[in-house]
Every structure is written in structure tokens, then in C-alpha cells.
Amino acid sequence: MALANGYNLLVVDLEEKSTGVRELLEPLVLRTDGLIVSARIPKDVVDWLAELDKPVAFLGQPERQGVVSVGMDSVEVASLLAGYLAQQGFTRIGYVGYPRAAWNVERLRGLHAVLDPAGIELMEFNAEEPTSEAGERVAAKVLLRSDRPQAVIGCNDLVAIGLMTQARALGFRIPEDVAFAGIDNIPTSRYVTPALTTVDVFSEATGEAVMKQIISMVTDQPPSDELRRQPLLIVRDSAKRVSGDDIPAKAEELSKIRRVGQVVGSGGCSYNKGSGSQWRALPKDFPPISTVPGYFYSWRDFGFGGVTRGRKALCSPRAVFGYLSLCGDESRRRGHTKS
Fold this sequence. Notes:
- The structure is a single chain.
- By secondary structure, the protein is of the alpha/beta class.
- The protein has ten helices and 15 strands.
- The strands form six sheets. It has a four-stranded parallel β-sheet, with helices on both faces. A three-stranded parallel β-sheet has the order 1-2-3, covered by helices on one side. Strands 8-9 form a two-stranded antiparallel ribbon.
- α4 links the parallel β4 and β5.
- α3 packs parallel to α4.
């Protein structure tokens, strides 16, 4: 769009920063005809930009009236998703947010606006960054608890996909045991298994609309009327309510295992990634060996460590994914206890 109209486009990643934003933007003010700025910046920077003698359009909704902005209403986006999950009959919903982002507060406001009047509990968690890897890291904290959410909303599709990936590794069925939903409708969201329920915020169309707007401002043309787009709920299999009795939380089983030490070889507890030995310390109804690494992450995060020959047994996933043996000789059995 910019090149087609004879303009060069300079891109600066503000990285959702809360400090140093103005210092990054000041050089661009001197070198450009106009600015398109994410609304996810501190209010004082928005006020400064609004007073400049230069065309400025915001991508998103800044906390200031009287400025030109193009984008979605984050409150409406979250409300749309919350309404669908409430209709599905979920009574305990988790939200994994990204508190560094300005839109996070608006998303929470939209969720509470729908869920609170319906008496639906909203459980709040935070991801370290808005990525799939961060979703995987926080999954154990979200899921391995006696009051785990029946459905979990990721602050974006990437976080939701990371949560789903680790949920499967922990042995949860989706959506039978726990449902998931995201926001953005990135292309990958339809190809994961199960396909991810999400909200389409029309990122590409919004980018095109804000570019039209800034070109109109720079050339003193009548402004575009494409200032707002309505979000679209995309219903897929990851968040469809499955009838039947609620499956007991696996955290309750995990919490029973306090310590693992030496046990007899025949009924022992040994895990060797190469040989695929069974992990006999797990409850008999736990999933196959392929899910074991996920439980080690859970034990690590929640402090369920063990001791063998005076040493920590479950100290890090690095030990797990190589070779870890907790078996003593067959004549000795000690330390395997349940509370």
C-alpha cells in the first residue's frame, strides 16, 4: 500500500515497552511525513504525539479522545469470546494474559463484563511473553491444580497453541478435559489439532486501513471511513463443550507423590528415554510414556522432588531427557511414599 502510493515505510519495533518509547519515536518525527503508531504505548507518549504538528494515526485504541485511530475494540474482542464460552456451559475459565501489553487490561475488562454477571469464575494467569514457548512454560501452573479451569483463553493464538501443546504432553484431552481458545486467527490456528477456536481481528485489513488513513492525512485528502472493524468469532473444535462427567484433575494425582527413592527393580521406577522403560512410580491410570517429560516439568515447577542415595532425583528436565534411574538393587526398597 505504501509503495503503491509512492511512500517508503520505516518499521520500528517498540516491543511493548513501557519506557524509552518517546526516545525511539523522536528521530522518526524528524524524518517522516507521518506516523502510524501502535496504541499499546504509555499515555504520556500518546499525549505528546497528539500535540505534534504532524499527521499521526494510531493502530488500536489509545487512552485519549480526539485522535485518529484504526483497529479493534479489545474489550469487544474479549467479550465476544467470553460470551461463547459462557454459552457452552463453562463455569470456571482461565485467562493467560501478557501484562506488559496495554490491551491486556482491556481484555480483562471485556472478560469480566460478561463472566461476572453470569457468576462464572475468571482465573487470571500471566505469560512471560506473547509466544508459544511462553504458553508451554505456564501450562503446568494453569492446569496442574485441583481447581483447574474448564476452559483457557490465551491472550493470542500463539500462547493458546503453546498451552494446548503442553496440555497434550501432560495427558489432557482437548476439549474433553480442558478447552482452549485464542485471539488473532493466525493461519496456524486452523491447522493445529484440534483446530483452535479464536477471534479474527483482521490484522492485515486493519493495517491496510490505517495506511489509507495516514496517506489521506498527509495529502490533505478526505479521511477514510474504515476506522473500525467488527471482530469475528471463529468456532473450531478446541473449545466445544463435551458432555459427560468431569474428569478429575490430574494435579490431584500428582500431589499425592511426595518423594521417589530406591525401589525394587521389578516394580521399580526407572525412565530411560532411549529404551522407553516404564515410569512405574506414576499412578496406573496415567497416560503413556510419551507424556512423561511433561510430568517432570510439573514436578520441577511445583517442587515434587525426590531423593535417591542422598541426591535430588527430579532436579531438572535435562536429567530426565537424557537418562535417569531411580532403581536400587532388588534387595532394597525405600523412599517410595504417598501422602
